[in-house]
Recover the amino acids of this structure.
């Protein structure tokens, strides 16, 4: 009886203590998160309830939900939300497909593999603003390399105005983004591929599986965690795309490539409309959270299906 | 006794030493007090790194020598003017700004003044003194009747043309938009050029700067600063858009002109196969570099107009203001007086090729000897047109940029685009007034 109770107490005490230690150990990280995430968002939420712009001489005046009402009728905001969604989904999907392909190639052993791996990550290591500048000239209608190649191949008769047509401008910007960030995804996926034991493939092959079957039944399910991480990373990053588009099109032509971050930036830093800018930030943040949650939910479901 | 002597001497010696220490301490204290009371005031000023270079070529040293009680701390910011604006903006928003002086582009002045970040300089300068500057440069520094910015250097949009080709074809430089298109087509037919006219068509500030000139040339207006009347849906505006549209449709301008900033246009023009270009004065020295294919073959003139309307020259340029948060406005004013003075402007112009903000310098013998085209610039400056000096300029400009870009890239018909632009601008300005 006594021994049992002592043992019981002995079992529960460390557990309890472990919990406290665990909380204590994660406290600094939690505090940091609150400081860099919760505080700014909370402050933006608070600021969004005020009108604070040049009209009020930058003094905050409480105006309730006025900013949100104004946002409902702000076509430019919803247009930029849509543009951001299109940009994000197309570029992330293509990057994932290409990145997976590159990772599979880099996972094979061939001569000069290390060199190729290093080269593959170069675009990601370059500053985005520089890349944007380079692509602006590559897509230039008179001097651009793209038009030059197409003209030489005889595919077109006159230079295409890549950055001057709304759809083509979007295509160009997405192309540049894919060029830059595919390597990031492929490096992440390559790490995942290397953690898959080759025994699995050998056993599977002995059972008579084709390479395609091995890919679907071994590679994809075991790679799912990395794919998920890569997707979430890229999704959040692409949703906040700023530098590349600023340099390449400045949001033009006619606002066709204006993404949310460009609009928020202009509202806050150039128009000095802090209350409304804060409201834009809050709504964009909520939209992003919702989108990531939905994406993560769908992916986790598909993961259960493939592995189960 | 014999033994007493040394201590006695020691004592004497140490007394003497003590006295010396006290005197020294007092001396140092006095000197420190004197030095402290004369400690020079340090003033901070931020500008783009390229802009800062000519200041550092002896001018700051010269200023500090003339004003021993002032030290000027020139901070070199990013190369892009937008980023420098951001730095100023965030430092003023956060309060406790480190900058005493503000180096401003024309289009920031009203916003900064409306935000209460600048000191009123009206009482510091007499009207006789301001009369020495180009009137538009001074106007650009005014907001609601008060003066906030003294111009250091000006900038003007104008027409570059290939003098050699036009002369060889027996033609005269154009004075109207229609003539410009006609000459371009003649030269293109003769195979002398690939393109007639390049301008800035990308959706950015340069687009509306260029458009302000064309609008003036057709007798239209954008926003009247006093009445806040908006002229974007008037027939003159549509004529101005029609001209730009025509240049592309008629093959006078390359289709990609709607993606060009200054550099894209300049490179094309400097390549030697373009007849006309709209640009700022910076393109002149570049076009006359020794390896330039168009060296000595081009000239400048004021932007063309339409019958009955002379063309406009969009005013750019930089000037100095004093931050409200500065503890040393008196000393800051000394800096402004020095750097906007005629002698220093002359030095800056000779050093860096700036456009003068003082009228007399356009025809200054020393300057003309180095830049023979400056008297021409004086003519151009007479047509200077201001982008609306209103607090919400950044928004007003963005509205026009978006809709104008839509109109010239055929996303919207010019009619509908300008109707929408005018409505949005009116709504914005109406909201601003209600506050």
């Amino acid at each position: 009886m006594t021994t049992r109770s002592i043992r019981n107490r002995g079992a529960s005490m460390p557990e309890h203590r472990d919990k406290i230690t665990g909380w204590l150990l994660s406290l600094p990280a939690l505090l940091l998160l609150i400081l860099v995430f919760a505080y700014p968002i909370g402050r933006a939420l608070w600021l969004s309830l005020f009108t604070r712009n040049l009209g009020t001489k930058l003094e905050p005046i409480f105006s309730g939900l006025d900013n949100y009402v104004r946002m409902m009728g702000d076509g430019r905001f919803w247009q930029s939300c849509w543009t951001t969604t299109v940009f994000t989904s197309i570029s992330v999907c293509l990057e994932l497909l290409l990145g997976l392909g590159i990772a599979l190639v880099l996972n094979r052993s061939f001569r000069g593999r290390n060199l190729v791996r290093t080269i593959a990550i170069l675009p990601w290591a370059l500053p985005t603003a520089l890349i944007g500048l380079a692509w602006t000239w590559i897509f230039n209608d008179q001097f651009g390399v793209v038009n030059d190649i197409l003209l030489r191949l005889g595919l077109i008769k006159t230079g295409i105005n890549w950055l001057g047509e709304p759809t083509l401008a979007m295509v160009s910007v997405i192309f540049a983004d894919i060029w830059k960030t595919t390597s990031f995804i492929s490096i992440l996926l390559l790490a995942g591929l290397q953690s898959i034991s080759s025994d699995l493939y050998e056993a599977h092959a002995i059972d008579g599986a084709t390479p395609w079957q091995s890919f679907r039944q071994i590679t994809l399910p075991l790679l799912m965690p990395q794919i998920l991480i890569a997707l979430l990373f890229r999704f959040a990053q692409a949703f906040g795309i700023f530098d590349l588009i600023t340099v390449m099109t400045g949001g033009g032509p006619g606002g066709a490539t204006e993404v949310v971050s460009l609009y928020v930036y202009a509202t806050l830093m150039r128009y000095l409309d802090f209350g409304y800018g804060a409201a834009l930030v809050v709504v964009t943040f909520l939209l992003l959270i919702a989108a990531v949650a939905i994406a993560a939910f769908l992916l986790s479901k598909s993961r259960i299906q493939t592995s189960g | 006794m014999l033994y007493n002597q040394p201590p006695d001497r020691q004592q004497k010696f140490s007394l003497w030493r003590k006295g010396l220490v006290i005197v020294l301490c007092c001396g140092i204290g006095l000197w420190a007090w004197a030095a402290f009371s004369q400690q020079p005031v340090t003033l901070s000023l931020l500008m783009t790194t390229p802009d800062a270079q000519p200041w550092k070529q002896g001018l700051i040293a010269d200023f500090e020598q003339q004003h021993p009680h002032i030290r000027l701390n020139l901070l070199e910011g990013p190369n892009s003017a937008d980023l420098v604006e951001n730095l100023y903006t965030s430092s003023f928003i956060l309060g406790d700004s480190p900058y005493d002086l503000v180096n401003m582009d024309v289009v920031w002045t009203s916003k900064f003044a409306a935000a209460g970040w600048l000191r009123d300089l009206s009482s510091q300068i007499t009207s006789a003194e301001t009369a020495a500057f180009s009137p538009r440069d001074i106007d650009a520094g005014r907001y609601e009747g008060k003066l906030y910015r003294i111009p250091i250097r000006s900038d003007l949009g104008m027409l570059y043309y290939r003098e050699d080709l036009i002369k060889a074809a027996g033609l005269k430089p154009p004075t109207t938009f229609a003539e410009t298109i006609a000459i371009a087509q003649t030269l293109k037919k003769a195979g002398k050029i690939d393109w007639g006219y390049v301008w800035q068509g990308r959706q950015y500030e340069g687009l509306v700067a260029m458009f302000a000139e064309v609008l003036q040339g057709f007798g239209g207006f954008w926003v009247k600063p006093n009445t806040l009347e908006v002229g974007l849906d008037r027939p003159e505006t549509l004529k101005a858009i029609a001209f730009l549209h025509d240049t592309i449709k008629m093959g006078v301008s390359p289709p990609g002109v709607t993606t060009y900033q200054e550099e894209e246009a300049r490179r094309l023009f400097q390549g030697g196969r373009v007849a006309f270009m709209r640009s700022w004065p910076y393109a002149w020295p570049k076009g006359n570099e020794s390896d330039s294919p168009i060296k000595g073959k081009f000239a400048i003139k004021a932007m063309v107009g339409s019958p009955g309307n002379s063309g406009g020259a969009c005013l750019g340029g930089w000037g100095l203001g004093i931050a409200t948060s500065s503890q040393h406005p008196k000393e800051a004013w000394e800096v402004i007086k020095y750097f906007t003075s005629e002698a220093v402007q002359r030095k800056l112009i000779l050093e860096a090729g700036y456009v003068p903000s003082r009228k007399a310098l356009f025809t200054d013998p020393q300057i003309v000897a180095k830049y023979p085209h400056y008297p021409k610039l004086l003519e151009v400056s007479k047509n200077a047109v201001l982008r609306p000096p209103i607090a919400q300029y950044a928004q007003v400009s963005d509205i026009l940029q978006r809709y104008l870009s839509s109109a010239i890239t055929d996303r919207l018909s010019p009619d509908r685009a300008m109707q929408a632009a005018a409505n949005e601008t009116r709504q914005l300005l109406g909201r601003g007034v209600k506050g």
In short: The radius of gyration of chain B is 28 Å.
